[in-house]
TrEMBL record:
It comes from Streptomyces hiroshimensis. It comes from the Bacteria. The chain crosses the membrane at residues 38-59, 79-97, 109-130, 160-179, 186-204, 216-232, 239-259, 271-293, 300-316, 336-356. The lineage of its organism: Bacteria, Bacillati, Actinomycetota, Actinomycetes, Kitasatosporales. This is Acyltransferase 3 domain-containing protein. Residues 1-26 are annotated as: Disordered.
Amino acid sequence: MHPTLPVQQEHAEPPGTPGAPDGSDGDGRARLAALDGLRLLAALMVVAYHYMAFGSGAWDGPSAAVFPTAHLPASYGWLGVQLFFLISGFVICMSCWGRGVGRFAASRVTRLFPAYWFSVLAVALVVRLWPALDETPRARDIAVNLTMLQSPLGVDPVDGVYWTLWVELRFYLLFALVVAGKGLTYARVVGFCVVWGFAAAVAAAADEPVLDQVLMPEHCWYFIAGIAFFLMHRYRPNLVLWLIVAACFLVAQHELVAAQTRAEGYMGHRVPHWPTAVLLALFFLAVAAVALGRTRSLDHPWLTAAGALTYPLYLIHERVGWLVIRRAAGDVPPAVLLPGLVAGMLLTAWLVHRLVERPLAGTLRRGLRRAAAEIRAG
């Protein structure tokens, strides 16, 4: 975005989370538009995967028959989640710099929950009113989903995409340990990256479920690499940071073999593995370009506006989209239905952002600040 030493645009939003209307993170901190563009790309990849490759049964036939050309590239759309995690490491470190753990926690709550609460209730209502693809969520399960803790508690999610939020929450909790106390410093963050990577490798070797839940040996490499990229962005690249990024890439490309096998199980067909490694490399190169200041020309307001749609789009597109497809596929050609559906989802995401995220996030932020002041005052 800019050369390695200046940090005038130091703060940005986490992937998939909302931003303020002026492009700030809600606290007056500027954002990196290129990262907003990458977030939207990641969300659209996931949308393409669920609509054109996932074995949802929503279309009148298999995806390979309905989309003979597009289904193969869409089969790699699940990798958008890995791109989300990579960006998240970058921007969470960015948004935490200079903040205490209380402000960090409050910022995460105000960005994650308003759109999420709305999406849980809206998706649950739509599916209960027009059940079509699977069992409707039970009221007690919907209530647990509102806490975002359904995954560790073994409760069925209202929408399948919500599994990634539990991954993000665990990353936030781990990073809060670094923020706590003296706050973030260059040396502490580098040490956190190294220790987390080695601890995750030990957890993978130990095959201990509790360690897996805490250290996330399958997903941590994207967060760690994103943090290292931010340190390059804030300071300057050096050998230690490049070694951290390289190690994360090498481990991540190996872990993706198992992830692709799971994705193929959901799709019902196999795809070549080499595009997975190529896309992962492109993700790393794209975030490296931001870190090294190679994306200044992409600082356009429309990217920031588009990035604001990412989180609500991600939250609402899956089950509601499948329901629309199931009900309309027999009457509307796929070439018309699919772009119309994506456009409708983007419009819905914009409405959620304007009518739910912005007003509710502001109210929630003010309430949390008052509560924090009262707690500090004893």
